[in-house]
């Protein structure tokens, strides 16, 4: 294992060496206490979008120079990241993997991730209890909300999900793919509308959602996979509404002045904890835990929240008031904003069915 | 086209060809226009002119690393494929009629018969089982599989045109087999090898379909890198990358035109 | 001319390539094809041998529909490529030196530009909003604010695929046209054939091998693509390639993904064989189905 990594390092130094060497040399402070990490490298699988950019530009370079190590970043969505872990199970490349809470039970049950030693993640002390998940197999570093979004020039915000089915949105709704976490919420919403149950109970009735989903078809312009592109397209008037989508994808546009914003329907919106996991038998697990600790550092937590609009999980962060009002933070506001957290054990078992049903309904135009 | 024979058809065909070329250029020119737009989103029409996005990507170590990685992988794969393919082509042409040679040729061309998507997929499953975990090795294997047939085909074609009696003559005059081959035949097939190598290089440089199955955090060949960026950023820097690639592409094509002549190297 | 002096040496020269492809291509493909008869469990791919994956393809209306869409998109793309490619090929093979050189540069240069980027360009061009280039242009010509909704349709996929695969039609076509002896055209002209008749009765039949080769490549590559339909087609233009990718990378059902891959290969071979047979039996015996198949991806098999 060690051998492979040192080989990997020399290979990369040929490719990217200049940049790394430059950074290491330029680092003014020498952290003697981190000498154990010198020359090691880890791969981190992060989310996509603005948050990934923040990590790429603000977190990794500093971490690399503090620990004199190398961090490679790969962006992906939860199911794709799990597919990678499965393929590499016998010989893992990744050390840290970001997964939505949906992915944690799957990854744990298949032995893809290992239990976290919280004593090596000092900052985990400040993380609210409900965000240390599944018996220490994952620790959340951010909470996004998932909600519909709309073009503020051509539409009014949805006050109820039922409006999505209205004739005003013929061919004007861009739906997120059920291959991604945020795409699973719409069937839950449909089930809630059919059964009249609140979202938390409707999640157990997804099988009743499909007729209602089929009724949505005239409104669906497409099902998208590229979240960033879809939000841009809605902001340009390609469609009037989209979703459900994570706040961390939509809000960066809103604050940059694009005419797009989240809706807060009366039925409530969903919460999606973004978690960090340690890959089973991964290279350099200690460095991986150190990286997780860094992600929970109050300064990073503040920066992540303010640039990518996902709530911190660490308590006691002073957020910019303009950002704070958009986020379910501090923790108590989760309930105040009616953020629904789903029971993934139930949904995971139906996941491939949800994907196939969606294909069947929407894969045929007409 | 002969004006006298084709008459008014000539104008119609020329007009259609012109429209078709416009069709080919349109999406490229539009990315180019947007790459110069200073606004924060990739939207049309451009709001002004700036080179800031080019500066941004040319200072991005990830973009440069991907570019370098793709060039490196393409060069290594092309080199290996030449090493394997040129002797094999020679054997195919000179040993035609030998028992088994037809089968060998069919086997060496067989990767052409399967969609690359499926070749990559089966390789991924295969490496998962064999346990070769070095992504660079796996990707190169995939590239070499895909490009070997192209090398074989172009080299075999040019070998068939070689006048073998010249090499015979050299042998008669006392040159060793190797020297005679190098000094007589190799020189004649050099343009064919070159054209094959350039195609192989171009195929490897933009091989999304093989790479997508093997990519990981550290190894992001250019097409994968660009696809990931499309998912993460909404500013015109993607368009600027296409500008850079278009420039590289035009240079390669002009070079090819100067060196061998495009029509000749495309077999026209 | 073809000396067989050292048969052993010749076989040895092919040995590295043969071994390499046996191990890195034939074996994996066989493994993958056979895994389509197995079942995915949470522990991996396992026995018993079953036809259930294929039965699922046949039994679920969705998959029949996707096969039909794949076929339709690939056929339209191939026909359009022929229609759009022929004039360019004429210019390349028969045009003046400047025009012909310009044409081939314009056809070949985009080959070097990533398919990702070209598809990105199309998504900017076709966007269903006021900043889509096509809509923007039409709006300025007075056609109303958002005149077209081409993005996320089969049409968008056909246009995108046409753009990516056009060179695969133009190149064999130009080389076929270039091989037609100009004296034939001259003779036909002297005998009083006008331009249309010359094209239709002389040039097209003589170029049939080139047309078949180009059509075969364009069809095969389009039917196996997944990048262009994913970006330009969205949910209403799902192609087999997208389903394969989805099964492997999101659903993680290798056997079913493999079964879909096998269906894709059968579709491509079936249509190629059928086309070869159809054209074989009529006019030109040499433009055989063997040619259509053997000359499959001629230039670049790699374009998604």
TrEMBL record, chain A:
SUPFAM superfamilies cross-referenced by the UniProt entry: Periplasmic binding protein-like II
Pfam families xref list: SBP_bac_8 (PF13416)
InterPro entries (alphabetical): SBP (IPR006059), TAT_signal (IPR006311), TAT_signal_bac_arc (IPR019546)
Region forming the signal peptide: 1-26
Gene3D superfamilies: Periplasmic binding protein-like II
Keywords: Signal
PROSITE patterns the record matches: TAT
NCBIfam families: TAT_signal_seq
Protein name: Extracellular solute-binding protein
TrEMBL record, chain C:
Cellular localisation: Cell membrane
Record carries keyword Cytoplasm: no
The keyword Transport belongs to this UniProt entry's keyword annotation: yes
Protein name: ABC transporter permease
Membrane topology qualifier: Multi-pass membrane protein
Residue ranges crossing the lipid bilayer per the database entry: 7-33, 62-86, 98-121, 159-178, 198-219, 226-244, 256-279
InterPro entries documented for this protein: MetI-like, MetI-like_sf
Origin superkingdom: Bacteria
Domain ABC transmembrane type-1 span(s) in chain numbering: 67-275
Species the sequence originates in: Pseudomonas typographi
UniProt-listed PROSITE patterns: ABC_TM1 (PS50928)
Family to which this protein belongs: Belongs to the binding-protein-dependent transport system permease family. CysTW subfamily.
Keyword list, A-Z: Cell membrane, Membrane, Transmembrane, Transmembrane helix, Transport
């Amino acid at each position: 294992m060690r051998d492979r990594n040192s080989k990997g390092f020399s290979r990369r130094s040929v490719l990217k060496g200049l940049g790394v060497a430059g950074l290491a040399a330029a680092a003014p402070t020498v952290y003697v206490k981190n000498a154990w990490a010198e020359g090691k490298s880890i791969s981190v699988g992060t989310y996509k979008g603005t948050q990934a950019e923040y990590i790429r530009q603000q977190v990794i370079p500093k971490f690399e120079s503090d620990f004199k190590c190398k961090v490679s970043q790969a962006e992906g969505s939860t199911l794709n990241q799990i597919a990678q872990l499965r393929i590499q199970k016998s010989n893992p490349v990744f050390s840290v993997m970001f997964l939505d809470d949906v992915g944690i039970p799957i990854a744990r049950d298949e032995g893809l991730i290992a239990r976290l030693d919280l004593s090596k993640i000092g900052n985990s002390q400040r993380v609210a209890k409900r965000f240390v998940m599944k018996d220490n197999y994952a620790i959340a570093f951010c909470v996004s909300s998932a909600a519909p979004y709309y073009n503020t020039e051509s539409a009014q915000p949805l006050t109820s999900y039922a409006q999505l089915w209205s004739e005003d949105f013929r061919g004007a709704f861009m739906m997120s793919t059920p291959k991604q976490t945020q795409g699973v919420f719409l069937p839950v919403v449909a089930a809630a509308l059919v059964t009249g149950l609140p979202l938390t109970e409707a999640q157990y009735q997804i099988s009743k959602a499909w007729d209602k989903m089929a009724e949505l078809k005239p409104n669906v312009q497409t099902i998208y996979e590229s979240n960033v592109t879809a939000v841009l397209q809605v902001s340009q008037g390609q469609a009037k509404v989209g979703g459900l989508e994570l706040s961390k994808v939509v809000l960066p546009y809103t604050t940059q002045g694009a005419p797009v914003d989240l809706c807060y329907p009366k039925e409530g919106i969903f919460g999606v904890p973004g978690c960090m996991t340690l890959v089973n038998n991964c290279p350099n697990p200690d460095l991986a835990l150190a990286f997780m600790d860094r992600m929970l550092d109050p300064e990073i937590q503040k920066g992540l929240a303010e640039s990518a609009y996902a709530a911190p999980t660490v308590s006691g962060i002073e957020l910019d008031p303009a950002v704070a009002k958009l986020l379910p933070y501090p923790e108590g506001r989760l309930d105040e904003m009616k953020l629904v957290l789903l029971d993934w054990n139930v949904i995971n078992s139906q996941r491939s069915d949800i994907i196939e049903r969606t294909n069947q309904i929407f894969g045929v135009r007409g | 086209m002969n004006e006298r024979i084709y008459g008014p058809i000539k104008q119609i065909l020329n007009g259609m060809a012109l429209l078709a070329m416009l069709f080919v250029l349109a999406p490229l020119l539009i990315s180019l226009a947007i790459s110069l737009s200073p606004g924060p989103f990739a939207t049309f029409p451009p709001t002004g002119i700036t080179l800031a996005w080019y500066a941004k990507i040319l200072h991005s170590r990830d973009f440069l690393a991907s570019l370098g990685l793709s060039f490196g992988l393409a060069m290594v794969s092309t080199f290996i494929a030449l090493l394997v393919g040129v002797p094999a082509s020679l054997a195919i042409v000179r040993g035609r009629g030998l028992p088994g040679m037809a089968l060998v040729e069919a086997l060496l061309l067989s990767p052409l018969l399967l969609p690359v998507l499926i070749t990559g997929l089966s390789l991924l499953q295969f490496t998962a089982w064999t346990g070769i975990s070095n992504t660079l090795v796996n990707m190169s294997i995939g590239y070499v599989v895909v490009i070997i047939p192209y090398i074989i085909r172009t080299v075999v074609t040019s070998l068939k045109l070689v006048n073998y009696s010249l090499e015979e003559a050299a042998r008669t005059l006392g040159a060793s087999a190797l020297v005679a081959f190098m000094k007589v035949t190799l020189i004649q097939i050099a343009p064919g090898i070159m054209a094959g190598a350039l195609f192989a290089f171009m195929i490897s440089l933009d091989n999304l379909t093989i790479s997508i199955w093997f990519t990981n955090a550290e190894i992001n060949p250019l097409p994968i890198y660009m696809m990931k960026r499309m998912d993460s950023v909404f500013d015109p820097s993607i368009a600027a990358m296409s500008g850079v690639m278009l420039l590289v592409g035009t240079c390669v094509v002009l070079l090819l035109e100067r060196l061998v002549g495009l029509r000749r190297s495309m077999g026209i | 001319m073809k000396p067989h002096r050292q048969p052993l040496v010749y076989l040895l020269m092919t040995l590295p390539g043969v071994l390499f492809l046996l191990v890195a291509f034939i074996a994996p493909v066989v493994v993958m094809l056979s895994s389509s008869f197995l079942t995915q469990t949470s522990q991996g791919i396992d026995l018993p041998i079953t036809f259930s994956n294929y039965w699922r393809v046949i039994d679920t209306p969705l998959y029949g529909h996707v096969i039909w869409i794949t076929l339709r998109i690939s056929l339209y793309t191939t026909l359009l490529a022929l229609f759009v490619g022929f004039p360019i090929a004429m210019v390349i093979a028969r045009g003046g030196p400047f025009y012909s050189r310009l044409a081939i540069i314009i056809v070949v240069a985009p080959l070097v530009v990533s398919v990702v980027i070209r598809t990105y360009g199309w998504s900017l061009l076709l966007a269903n909003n006021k900043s889509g280039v096509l809509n923007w242009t039409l709006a300025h010509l007075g056609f109303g604010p958002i005149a077209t909704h081409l993005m996320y349709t089969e049409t968008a996929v056909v246009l995108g695929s046409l753009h990516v695969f056009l060179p695969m039609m133009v190149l064999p076509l130009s080389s076929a046209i270039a091989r037609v002896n100009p004296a034939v055209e001259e003779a036909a002209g002297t005998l009083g054939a006008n331009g249309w008749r010359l094209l239709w009765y002389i040039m097209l039949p003589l170029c049939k091998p080139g047309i078949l080769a180009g059509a075969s490549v364009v069809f095969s590559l389009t039917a196996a693509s997944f990048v262009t339909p994913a970006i330009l087609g969205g949910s209403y233009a799902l192609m087999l390639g997208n389903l394969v990718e989805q099964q492997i990378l999101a659903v993680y059902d290798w056997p079913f993904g493999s079964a879909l891959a096998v269906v894709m290969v059968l579709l491509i071979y079936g249509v190629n064989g059928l086309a070869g047979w159809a054209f074989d039996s009529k006019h030109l015996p040499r433009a055989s189905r063997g040619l259509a198949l053997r000359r499959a991806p001629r230039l670049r098999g790699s374009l998604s």
